[in-house]
Amino acid sequence: MPELPLNIIHADDWLIIVDKPSGLLSVAGKGPEKADSVVARTKVRWPGAREAHRLDQDTSGLMMLAIDVETQRRLHALFFARKVEKRYIAVAAGHVQDETGQVDLPLMKDWPNRPLQKVDHELGKPSQTRWRVLERSSISTANGELPVTRLELEPLTGRSHQLRVHLREIGHPILGDIFYAPPVIQAASPRLLLHAEMMSFIHPWTNEQMTFSCECPF
Predict the structure, then answer these.
(1) Do the domain assignments include residue 117?
(2) In which region does residue 170 sit, left (phi positive, over 0), alpha (psi from -120 to 50) or beta (all else)?
(3) Is 56 a catalytic residue?
(4) Fewer CB within 10 Å, N or C, the chain?
(5) Residue 66 belongs to what domain range?
(6) Contact predicate 75/198, CB 8 Å
(7) What are the backbone angles phi and psi of residue 189, rounded to the nearest 5°?
(8) Is the domain of 125 the same as that of 64?
(9) 173 domain residue, yes or no
(10) CATH number at residue 181
(11) Among 193, 184, 125, which Cα is nearest to 158's?
């Protein structure tokens, strides 16, 4: 039994929406030290639970699971067809100049440096992220005042580490990002400041419009 239960946002006969805490794996990895995960905890109550998509270990927020294989197949089809709308909140280093914009940079695995991803204009898969400035401010760090921008992010595609790489590429890495931010920006937060705040989709069985949100913890 997991030490800390999951915050269940929604559950019905086919799918479950949870608020994943930062630091918890979406699915179990290899070895006993990576056995704890969203899927493992959900299986305590729903033995057939399986992921419909994944969040990075360090990202918090809304994650959807299927209760059976057929629902998982239908949900995968929704994600593949880009019919699941998602919105994230991030705090990035520096003051982003424009109010809105879109990053369009193809991504692929950085094989020698897995699990990192990289921009590759020849072999990368199309990847797009819309962004909107919510607030510009500054925070105090051990190295002095650091200008930061709170952003709303909408991934139009679902590549691994997409939001993290795209913000790094436009010169505004996410605070606490141990993979893509320089040491000073990594040290500015004890966790990755990236949260999956909203998710909206058509239910694969009932055809109802479903929209869920969970408050950003930072």
Answers:
(1) yes
(2) alpha
(3) yes
(4) N
(5) 7-82
(6) no
(7) -145, 140
(8) no
(9) yes
(10) 3.30.2350.10
(11) 125
